[in-house]
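Example record

The entry below shows one chain as it appears in the dataset: sequence first, then structure tokens.
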Amino acid sequence: MQNFNTFINKLSNNLNGSALPGIEAQLSMAPVTRQEEIKRMRKGKNPRQSAVLVLFYPVGEEIKLVFIKRPVDESVHSGQIAFPGGRVEPEDKDYVETALREANEEVNVNPSDVKIIGALSKLHIPPSNFDVFPIIGFSIARPDFKGNYEVAKLVEVKVSDLINPLTKTTRTIQHRLGRLVDVPCYLVEGEIIWGATAMMVSELIELMNA
């Protein structure tokens, strides 16, 4: 793995130097159900706004990203892997503040320790009618992670594993409507990253490999 500073500088340049990969990169990891929804233009009225934090940090010679696993409950995204984040609150001045506030609440990331370098493309999530803005940042040291009640498990992933082509696979999951669906996903740390998070990761990987 390349030097952390070199990695961050390259990623920052790719984020801000030209047009983002956007929807084409996202759709490469979209479940067939999501593709069907997009084809039908199934976008809810007045989507709610949210932001997530895509946080890079070094651990020894490795560069890592932190994800969370949602608790199993009655929510739309029950038990899924996600980036720390959540809905925009009235007091948030922008999406960066939302992402940092939520990361602080969910996994104990100190906002003052994070430097923001850009953002991925906005992604609409039909099941929950959210527009999600993925904010990209880094910390020069591993944060003192502590999950709150919204987090069943912290999942720390090596970037070298995430970009490994062998990590990309397909698994069968039970869709929220009850049917079994084969979904493209990333298999890392014994967890399946699929759905909206995998779509964001797909765009991120394209930028990291540029």
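Notes for this example: Residues 4-163+195-209 form a domain with the Nucleoside Triphosphate Pyrophosphohydrolase fold (CATH 3.90.79.10). Residues 82 and 197 are 6 Å apart (CA to CA).
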